[in-house]
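Why this split exists: single-chain examples teach little about how molecules sit against one another. For that reason, every record in the complexes split bundles all components of an assembly together and asks for one structure covering all of them. Below is a record exactly as it appears in the raw files.
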Amino acid sequence: MSSPTEARQLTFSQAVNEAIREEMDRDHRVVLFGEDVAAAGGVWKVTEGLLDRFGAERVLDTPISEAGIAGLGVGAAMTGLRPIVEIMFGDFLPLASDQIVNQAAKTYYMSGGMTSVPMVFLTSMGAGRRLAAQHSQSLQAWFAHIPGLKVALPSSPHDAKGLMKTAIRDENPVIFLQDKVDIYQKGPVPDPSHEYTIPFGRADVKREGEDLTLIATSSMVRQALDAASELAAEGIESEVIDPRTLAPLDEETLLDSVRKTARCLVIDEGYQRYGAGAEIAALVGENLFYDLEAPVRRLGAMDVPVPFSPTLEDLTIPGKEQIVEIARQMFED
Amino acid sequence: MALTTESTPSQGLDAAARLKMLRQMLTIRAFEYRVGEFYERAEMPGITHLSIGQEAVAVGVCAHLNRNDYITSTHRGHGHCYAKGAGLVPMFGELLGKANGYCRGKGGSMHIADRETGHLGANAIIGGGIPLATGAALSAKVLRNRGVGVSFFGDGALNEGILLESMNLAAIWNLPAIFACENNHYGEYTPTDQVTAGRLTLRGEAFGIPSAEVDGMDVLAVYDATHAAVQRAREGGGPSFFVFDTYRYLGHGMSDRTRPYRSREEEDEWRTRRDPIERLRNQLLEAGHTSESELDAMGEEVRAEVEEAARLAQEAPFPDPEEVDRHVFAD
């Protein structure tokens, strides 16, 4: 038996697969359905092998019918199952928005606590794969805006597994977004004999530092860590914090860090305008305005539809270079 | 595939069962008129949509269901809620936004639900409840509990894509789902035939779902048509689709008073010649199952029961302020 420190290397995809497998073993009410999830194992290989293990009654291929499968998932969650519904690309969530926003998110409240909706919408986010405007968006802010929804977006295979297990056990609808560029990136994940879950609403300090807080989500965590290394060479020590869930949001850990560093840059791959970065920046500004040495900054995707041509697409995605540049500006007087 | 609805299991219903149906329809109608009074007196918040004229569909379908079966309903859903087994006091309470309402006053007329009796909720999105009941049918299939999921929806939902997506899924997965369309001939203020292409039952038949048009003003016809479908669903025989021909006696909502989109003659025709309550009443009298005086007494009892429930709901307190952010998330 290996210890967590000598962990295996798994991709995001393998880590989430393992989480789903463990939870389906643990709870017969967990079912999985979506486009190509069963026989093909999912376009991201996230659901590979699950059909063989759990059978066609619990792992179902669906038609290309996002609203329908989301809606049946909500109804099934209301009546005894715990569905994981895969919506292949986050860009397709708008097709299922009525079922997510008006039904899943509101049922527990509208029913006065009679009927909960324990389900997961498993989807992908992020640009960089040259998939153009309708397969590249990061729409987490849309859903984090809606009371009744939880939103998880892991930045490592380790976190992806722990957060997925929590998502499946949660009594509420959870939007679970996997970055599609990082999905085959490997990272350490403890051996299955070391079972773990990661609670929602608990941020993770990915790097400690005294001078600047970089709050980053999903694949932007890797960009922030790279930027932090470069800034360290210039004498700026960054603290990199990953909220891991936007709803609920671990306000305390974020504010504690900024209280210490007095400088804060938020990086999220959603469009910058009205994005998750704006919300977190407002939180910091409202609470710590008089502690700050520089205005809170945010960095999101450029406010344009994601273009196809690589030379254009790369201009729209936030990355290490921009983080470093903004960080430097924050230390100019 | 057309659905054969020639069998008449209602012939097996004894006088007591038929009188119960009559009483349910009378109660729904009395409830609805009382809701209208609340609204007219400005004692009820928001908006409401009454189902007067459509009582037979709710009662005839729900007669086959038990507490383990689920329904979803519409903005015009008080009748479904009562027919599925809900009580009058928490129904009125919910409509008045009171703490004793089924949803603790947080749902209202358009979102009323009653978990105990298998009512997953009215829905204010046209067609919104259809996939939910179909999902309940998926649960019943996976959990093998012989339950069925019934979605009530209006003719307005016939043009929502979610109906077709739900029907397709119910058909490919052979789910115990009943799609119960109440065609009251108007989607809000617009005549259905003006905005709806194709024969209505073809929407089900296109998916290979047994489909039938049924006289929704005759509770026994509704009962007969759905009897076999519910049985078949329980036994793994898959979904069915019904278009119940019915009529909304009043406007779309309480503010729709003049109904310029239809004639008074048309309304009178439905009210005087096809009323579902009068119809069953006359049948019961003709068959010697009851007497005028017995029916008058029943009417009085129903009115008194509804009035008493309305009074209790009106006297109930509004929710405490701390209720406002409870139940956003389940623990």
